Prior knowledge:
The complex is a heterodimer. Helices cover 34% and strands 16% of the residues of chain A. By secondary structure, chain A is of the alpha+beta class. Chain A folds into two domains: 3-78, Beta-grasp domain (Ubiquitin-like (UB roll)); 87-154, DNA polymerase, domain 1 (Orthogonal Bundle), CATH 1.10.150. Chain A has a five-stranded mixed beta sheet, covered by helices on one side. The longest helix of chain A has 15 residues, at 140-154. The N and C termini of chain A lie far apart (49 Å). In chain B, a hairpin with a 2-residue loop joins strand 6 and strand 7 (143-148). The N and C termini of chain B lie far apart (47 Å).
Amino acid sequence: xxxxxxxxxxxxxxxxxxxxxxxxxxxxxxxxxxxxxxxxxxxxxxxxxxxxxxxxxxxxxxxxxxxxxxxxxxxxxxxxxxxxxxxxxxxxxxxxxxxxxxxxxxxxxxxxxxxxxxxxxxxxxxxxxxxxxxxxxxxxxxxxxxxxxxxxxxx
Amino acid sequence: xxxxxxxxxxxxxxxxxxxxxxxxxxxxxxxxxxxxxxxxxxxxxxxxxxxxxxxxxxxxxxxxxxxxxxxxxxxxxxxxxxxxxxxxxxxxxxxxxxxxxxxxxxxxxxxxxxxxxxxxxxxxxxxxxxxxxxxxxxxxxxxxxxxxxxxxxxxxxxxxxxxxxxxxxxxxxxxxxxxxxxxxxxxxxxxxxxxxxxxxxxxxxxxxxxxxxxxxxxxxxxxxxxxxxxxxxxxxxxxxxxxxxxxxxxxxxxxxxxxxxxxxxxxxxxxxxxxxxxxxxxx
Lengths: 155, 283
């Protein structure tokens, strides 16, 4: 039986009827067509599905949409301010922080949480902070540089 | 992966949650952060007909610094526990283990109550809670009971919880051994679960060990304290020789897990290595 949920996504409130078993990532991708949030491993290891729930990074494959009822979600689509890229998006562009790009939205959402709690992380802290996000192209070196670029810009 | 169908309930009090649990019995499961349960539902290892979401129950949240103990509400996230000043001061291994669970995302939403109810033997909580001499507060329709942690973990994904009970809090006593405690782990690199996790808590008097608690996650299907190591340490001075003697035969009396990540012999060897790391950090 479907139940009503009211979830604010990127500043806009959505009232929908959903099955309780619907995962938040499918709510975003299939109900709202926000396909920037990717599904990688589907087992809460790879971090490709990372979004923010009430400002905290979350693997959206590991939460039911009903758990997000009444809460506020930010996805990669909500990071830029109009045409102006978020400093992390700009960092990944400037420092070539992606190869295939599949992990990028999750990397950016995780890095945004990391920088919020630690605005000036060391290289080691960045690498440690990304332990829940996998890049199968193994492009970690430039991902770290992209986050350092953003940290500098946001300082 | 898609879970089986279920009905979703979100009570706002413990009483309401227990009424739901009593009504639906073993067709129901408690959900807190969901970071153990949702993966289980997705893999269809369990297919309850009713999910009771307790995350909105305020009295199950927060960490209270009492005179003789610290009470961690079952809905506290690993991230909250990692940052808690009272735990850092009185039981550093608890905050340290919390900071090593999973990753930023998992620590933001996974809860201590959910994790220990799930009782994955490779989770970080069992080792530190055993070493800490924690008590698990279980609430049922008739009231509350506290279970000593030594009686709580019964086997692979098995605990002493009754079917109509909810973990509402975890109590950590303020003791000299908890004040002088640490946790180290050898993580599986993708999942961050412990191939070996070792918690050590040591109380000294005039330089001699008066109480030693050394516990392991990840090594056996039931998390355990190693009484051989503890006995060997008691009465000695914590130095290189005492550590070498005490850890010469770690995990001798338990059945050791074996899987494609770590075979039995390797796991047992690494349990010794990590016991030495933990104890050396306290020496």
